[in-house]
Amino acid sequence: MSRILLAATLAVALSLGLIGSGAIASADNRSEQVVFSGTGFGDFGPFGFWVWCAVDSHNPYDDCNGAMYFYGLHLTKHVDGTVSEPGDDQYLMDLTSRDGSIACSLENVPPIVSGPHNTVTASCSSPAGSGTSTSAVVTNNG
């Protein structure tokens, strides 16, 4: 009787995908999402950013999209690029505009806290300079 119960339990578990490659495959399709949003000040004057990234998604959309702007330079552009995770709660976004007028790296200082209380540093080759936002919102959902 116990063998019949075990066989029935395994059959139900396999059909629901609780055991086997189905559960593992669906876990691999999930991705972590990271958003940086804020304003700050740097060598180039006041600047701002809003960028969304997918981290380790193992799909063609494993990248970043958003916007950066530099108020004093009257420069606002769509940016895209890549994201890496050098440490726990630490993200590094390498971003460029299609015309090359913006080429920056944004990196948060861990730990991530709720609300506009995070520090994000910007290091840019175009426009040349660096800056800091101490009131950025940083979210990670994964």
Description:
This protein has 142 residues and is α+β, with helices and mostly antiparallel strands. It folds into 2 domains: 1-29; 31-141, Lipocalin. It is 15% helix and 55% strand. It is built from 2 helices and 8 strands. The chain has helices at 2-15, 21-28, and strands at 32-42, 45-55, 64-70, 75-87, 90-96, 103-108, 118-126, 128-141. The chain has an 8-stranded antiparallel barrel. The chain starts with a helix and ends with a strand. The model is unreliable at 1-28 (pLDDT under 50).
Task: Outline the fold blueprint.
Elements: H1 2-15, H2 21-28, E1 32-42, E2 45-55, E3 64-70, E4 75-87, E5 90-96, E6 103-108, E7 118-126, E8 128-141
Q: Which radius of gyration do the C-alpha atoms yield?
A: 21 Å
Helix/strand class? alpha+beta
**Uncertain spans, ≥5 residues at pLDDT below 50?**
1-28
The end-to-end distance, rounded to whole angstroms, is 43 Å
How are helices and strands ordered from N to C? HHEEEEEEEE
CATH topology annotation of the largest domain? Lipocalin
CATH class of the largest domain: Mainly Beta
- Main sheet, how many strands, which sense, barrel? 8 strands, antiparallel, barrel
**What percent strand?**
over 45%
Report a brief summary of the structure.
The protein is α+β, with helices and mostly antiparallel strands and 142 residues long. It is 15% helix and 55% strand.
List keywords for this structure.
15% helix; Lipocalin; disordered N terminus; globular; eight-stranded antiparallel beta barrel; alpha+beta; 142 residues; single chain
